[in-house]
What we know:
By secondary structure, the protein is an alpha+beta fold. The protein is 46% helix and 21% strand. It has a 6-stranded antiparallel sheet, with helices on both faces. The protein has a two-stranded antiparallel sheet with strand order 2-6. The longest helix has 25 residues, at 144-168.
Amino acid sequence: MATGHLFRGSALAAVGRKGEVALPPFVLGTIARGSDSRSVVVVPHETDPCITAYDPGEGAAVDAELERRRLRGEALGEPADAHHSRARRAFGLSETAPCDPAGRIVLPPLVRRKSRIDGLALFVGTGTSFEIWNPQVAREAGDEALRELAEFRLSEGGRHALQAEEERG
């Protein structure tokens, strides 16, 4: 993804029984501007109980960040297994989720289970990536801004998103 194409915004979307979810306009627009890829890479977040997702074109930047952190860790005396753990999480647990013509992806079962995504998904732009949260888990997070965002999105349209998914499904 070219510099300047950042994921900005938030949205709530219904998640189907098999993990299918419509990507919100702020995600689809950023992907369309950033590359020809009609997919996203999804991976469990390093520390939070959510999914991190990004354009496949960002893979080299993810690798470069891992290398930067490895070198910093070595300089600080961090054990090598910390780097290997980060690399496994970043690449071994990641999956590419193709986007269908309607703008939907299927969240893979492993990342969905690890992030407790079921029924609704809260999408949160974080710059070169975006997060996908179970909005109820986000409401319990230690981040006040995230809690407030989840509360707002749930009060604004959580019921409507669930009803729409039930009608489709």
